[in-house]
Amino acid sequence: MNNLVVDYSDGDVSIYDNVKNLKEISPLKPLVNLVVMCTSGSMKMVIGGRTSVVKTDDVMFCPSCVCIDDYTLTSDFECKMLCMSDRIIQTLLHDKYLVWNDAVYMSQLNVVSMSEVCKEEFSFYYALIQSKIKNHRKNSNEIMHALIRSLLLELCNIIESTQQNYDDERKQSQGRMLFNRFIRIVAASEVKRQPITHYAGMLAITPKYLTMLCLKYSNKTASDWIVQYTKEDIRFYLRNSNLSIKEVSARLGFANMSHFGSYVRKHLGASPSDFRRGR
Length: 279
Known about the structure:
By secondary structure, this protein is an alpha+beta fold. The chain has two domains: 6-163, Regulatory protein AraC (Jelly Rolls, Sandwich), CATH 2.60.120; 173-276, Arc Repressor Mutant, subunit A (Orthogonal Bundle), CATH 1.10.10. The chain has helices at residues 86-93, 97-106, 116-134, 140-163, 168-171, 174-188, 196-203, 207-218, 222-240, 245-251, 257-268, 272-276; strands at residues 6-9, 13-19, 33-40, 42-47, 50-55, 58-62, 68-73, 78-84, 111-113. The strands form two sheets. It has a six-stranded antiparallel beta sheet. A hairpin with a 2-residue loop joins strand 4 and strand 5 (50-55). It starts with 5 loop residues before the first strand and ends with a helix. The model is unreliable at 167-171 (pLDDT under 50).
């Protein structure tokens, strides 16, 4: 991505405008999630081994750690690209996060077309985002994230309407159903930091098979998903609740404060008290 000029970046979100030189960085295996909005021309590519075509007014989705290769771009191709960490997507989408997972991991939905109404709405969102990029003020990151959340929710609506037309047999394969159930179980569990054997048992499969399914459909292990959801619970309770650190530790299933402190330092880079204070 060093060949491209970034218009906005805050550690969890980056925005690239007028992207024209993707040929120079092929192949690409981003460690972030991509939302690419084609504004002119078209691009044919292979995403995760599947051929997709993006044309004017299409939106392309690509989850993290999936290889994009074999670009064929028209001379007038232009797009706007939104790059987001796994954490920020989960944080911004909340309950709609499963819609994203269902689309990009299980249905492997990579490209959707926008209606005239959607294009008009997206133009308004992007005008606001451009304004915030140009005028950095107090709480600008929070405002930017609020705008991007609204944009993502609109995309989820498009995804849900598009998925209704997808092949039911492909969406309901046994492996996809099991992976989907695993994500839903983890998301709904109050204590998410459980052994893989715990979740595998609930699905009546072996831990090895569960991890294989996770790698197949998301390029992440079952442990990666458990850690990701656990970290988001920790972030929420430390930053957005009045619970004491001891109470947060107990609620999330940690045996003691020492273990909780070590886990937070390892995965969030600060002690629980420092993280709560925003350090």
